[in-house]
Amino acid sequence: MELQLSVGTAKIDITPPFALPLAGFASRENRKFETIDSRLYVRTFYFQQHTADGSKLQALLVSADILFWSEELTDQLRRRIERQWGIAVDAIILHATHTHSGPSISMRTVGLGDPDLDYLIFLEQAVIQSVDQAVADAEPVSIQMGKGVSRISVNRRKWVGNQMMLAPNADGLTDPELRVYVFTTSAGKKKGVLTHYACHPTLSDRNSVSSEFCGYAMERLESRHDPLTVCAYIQGCCGDIDPVRPEVVESNQDVISIVGQRFADDVDAILSGELERLEPTILAGRRSIAGLPFAGIPAQARFEITKLTIADGLTFIAMNGEMVVEYGLFLKSRSPGLIPLAYSNGMIGYITTAIQLQEGGYEPIESVTYFGLPGPFDPAVEAEVKNQLMAIIDEQT
Fold first, then answer.
1. Is the pTM of this model over 0.85?
2. In this model, does residue 53 exceed pLDDT 90?
């Protein structure tokens, strides 16, 4: 019996209705934002399947224009969604595009903007509304996938003298692969488009609300296609990857539109080409939790991985860390059907490699203060993370 997948989508505005501090840059000094350059959204994809015995399988992917989710709000939302719709916690991914120009969500960050409790309530209500709409919107779809490249990213770790600095490194490791997943109804309508890439949305440090290049690109794509098509950006392992800045611009917002347009064009080039059909598998969600040790301190961080299998060639591996690009490439090397997602279901800080910990620099050492961590991670973390990733991807679903 051929498996049938149904998908429902929703897009809800989560732009703050009042001024509050933004997350992402300490230079804003916790001041309330001054303007709104672009709207923020939560885009929700609901997956549903009926098995031969009549049971219903469900899964959920939520992509929000925020820096990252807090563990507290993530746990609260997943429990509420499970109670209300019966979607298992292990089959829910709350993902962030990682824009550095959205409201602060986490209470654990230091110097990156204090969360506003009223906004957290507003955001929770918006997510619940989006799930409600997506569940009601479910209908049978086919799945197509396309691959290409985008050259908008650059490694940002560079030796300057004897110091590892935050600076564009054209010779550094990146992941230029761009993947696009299209969900199409029997009537030929694009129900939703998922765009996967790895690049920090850090083009603007203005004290202004912005969905950054990824949000700009998604809105361009939505305007080019059916207005009811939901196009969501899902962020890869971009902990040490920045966007390439255009050389001649008039303002930060112009930078965002230039890079966003380039990225949207890269996505459209894939969509206009030949796409590969993917066959649905049995919907399955798995979750693993492990402790990651800090260096010289008897403490551990709670590392969570969620594996969500949608189709043969479409399995999300979502992690609650700011993962450097090496981890995304590691996962892809194990199977071309794995989709690495960082910034999902909470945040425990930068997860770097053992070599990067030795090198020092912002991601492994200097960021510790901003995440409120007791110290840098132990070099053994790299091996532990890879062991946990291998364990969950090898687990039969």
1. yes
2. no
